[in-house]
Write a sequence for this structure.
């Protein structure tokens, strides 16, 4: 569903992402884990077609991001680090706009918007202006815009950052639901980035760990924590290991 | 190009709920009325003076279009230099502020669709501004007999110049993420386009632009005044129409390049 092939992004001397390859199969929920500045956002921006890679490419649902950029982008629902909302629009008007940007046929738009509103628990605020919503609701609107066109692939960048504990629980619940098939819809393939370990344990079945732009680990969660190893230990071990050789690359 | 309508529609709705649009529309109506009335007062004063001196030959020469409508259009044209950058300043800067740029650029939408959609929204707004300008000479048709063709040509001139300014304002908005800076960049470009003939004369006179004067000719050609003035006076010349198309097209091209450059960074 998602195939990253030696993706690299350089900012001058800095290798923000350095030859990262991975595959995510249909229906998988993968946690993209790494400390701040590891290159998670940059990788997601390349997969979603916002930033062109300096090297390498990615294939989304069979469409290469360079060769068939529109098909690749059509296959993705993307929640950036900050939900990309227009504060002056109301929730349903905004979702209608996103649906039409993503080529949901006019006849199906209302239904698509209703479905996204219902799944994200936005029914009470559907006529409210987005600028007046709480941070938790804005985040839900952000997720709703990512799923409104029923994309096969969901890319979520730190979906719970800055929320309070109750909101965090609700958003995690929502993401878990999106990952399981429902109403004859197929399950979304989800890749979500985070630097919060419990988040990965709560939602994901596989972990891709990146550090200083390089992939350092790619394993099913069950394997990692087999034998009572805690994810914290793995994280600490993997993110401290190549400190010395990568030292000059830090900026 | 099927997303153009989607982009334009959203932009128009956002534009019309923004305080900027209301301030501009209100000021535009008020200033339009003020300058129309002052042009009218000057016109009547001129007639009174001619009558006082019994200058009947000159009195017969007095012309509603030449002596009233055209000076009024000239003033409104200058006011576009201030009002259009205010309308366009938020066009692209707000996408950066809201982080919605990331939504637009990861949707299956081309950059041309984004640029053209937004430009059409501003075009709709400036059409409204030109319509407000048209209202005042419209009154003269009730009480007098201005020449219709000449008046309409003047309005066409205002319309074309405002569309060109809208493209320049869009460009200004695309190269910064700050509305106020976008406003001033737009304002400066428009003012420069106004004083270009002067710059051309100075450059030619001082020999700075070389003996060929190709540069001076180009600068003179780029100046807006030479192409607006004839239209305001009722003269349609294809070369002037080409000027507006070339200027608007070039700035939209630059806008597209600026939006695209997010991807290189
Ligand atoms: N536009 C940019 N210009 C220069 N450096 C950047 C830019 N964006 C990100 N970086 C750098 O790239 C590295 C990876 O950033 P990012 O992908 O945002 O990390 P993460 O999302 O994992 O926290 C960081 O060192 C960051 O400072
Ligand atoms: Mg990040």
């Amino acid at each position: 569903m998602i195939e990253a092939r030696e993706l690299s992004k350089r900012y001058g001397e800095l290798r923000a992402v350095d030859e990262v390859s991975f595959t995510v199969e249909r229906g998988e929920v993968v946690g993209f884990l790494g400390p701040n500045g590891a290159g998670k956002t940059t990788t997601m921006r390349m997969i979603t077609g916002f930033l062109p890679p300096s090297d390498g490419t990615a294939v989304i649902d069979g469409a290469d991001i360079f060769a068939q950029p529109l098909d690749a982008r059509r296959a993705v629902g993307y929640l950036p680090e900050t939900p990309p909302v227009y504060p002056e629009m109301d929730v349903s008007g905004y979702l209608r706009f996103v649906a039409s940007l993503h080529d949901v046929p006019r006849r199906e738009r209302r239904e698509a918007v209703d479905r996204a509103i219902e799944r994200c628990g936005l029914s009470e605020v559907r006529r409210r202006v987005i600028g007046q919503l709480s941070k938790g609701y804005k985040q839900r609107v952000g997720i709703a815009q990512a799923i409104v066109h029923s994309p096969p692939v969901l890319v979520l960048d730190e979906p719970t950052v800055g929320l309070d504990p109750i909101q965090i629980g609700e958003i995690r619940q929502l993401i878990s639901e999106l990952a399981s098939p429902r109403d004859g819809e197929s399950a979304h393939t989800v890749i979500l980035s985070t630097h919060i370990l419990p988040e990965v344990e709560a939602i994901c079945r596989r972990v891709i760990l990146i550090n200083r732009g390089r992939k350092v680990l790619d394993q099913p969660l069950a394997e990692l924590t087999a034998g009572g190893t805690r994810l914290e230990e793995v994280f600490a071990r993997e993110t401290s290991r190549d400190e010395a050789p990568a030292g000059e690359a830090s900026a | 190009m099927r997303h153009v309508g989607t982009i334009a529609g959203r932009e128009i709705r956002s534009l019309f709920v923004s305080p900027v649009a209301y301030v501009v529309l209100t000021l535009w109506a008020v200033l339009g009325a003020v300058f129309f009335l002052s042009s009218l007062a000057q016109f009547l004063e001129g007639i009174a003076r001619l009558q006082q001196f019994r200058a009947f030959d000159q009195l017969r020469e007095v012309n509603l279009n030449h002596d009233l409508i055209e000076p009024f259009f000239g003033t409104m044209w200058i006011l576009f230099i201030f009002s259009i950058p205010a309308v366009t300043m938020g066009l692209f800067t707000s996408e950066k502020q809201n982080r919605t740029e990331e939504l637009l650029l990861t949707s299956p939408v081309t950059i041309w669709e984004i640029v053209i959609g937004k430009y059409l929204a501003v075009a709709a707004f400036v059409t409204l501004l030109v319509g407000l300008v048209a209202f005042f000479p419209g009154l003269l048709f009730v009480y007098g007999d201005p020449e219709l063709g000449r008046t309409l040509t003047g309005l066409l001139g205002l319309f074309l110049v405002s569309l060109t300014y809208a493209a320049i304002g869009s460009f200004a908005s695309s190269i910064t993420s700050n509305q106020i800076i976008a406003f001033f960049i737009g304002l400066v470009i428009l003012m420069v386009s106004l004083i270009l003939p002067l710059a051309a004369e100075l450059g030619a006179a001082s020999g700075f632009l070389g003996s060929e004067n190709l540069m001076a000719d180009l600068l003179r050609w780029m100046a807006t005044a030479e192409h607006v003035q004839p239209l305001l006076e009722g003269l349609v010349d294809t070369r002037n129409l080409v000027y507006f198309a070339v200027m608007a097209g070039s700035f939209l091209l630059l806008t597209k390049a600026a939006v695209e450059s997010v991807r290189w960074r």
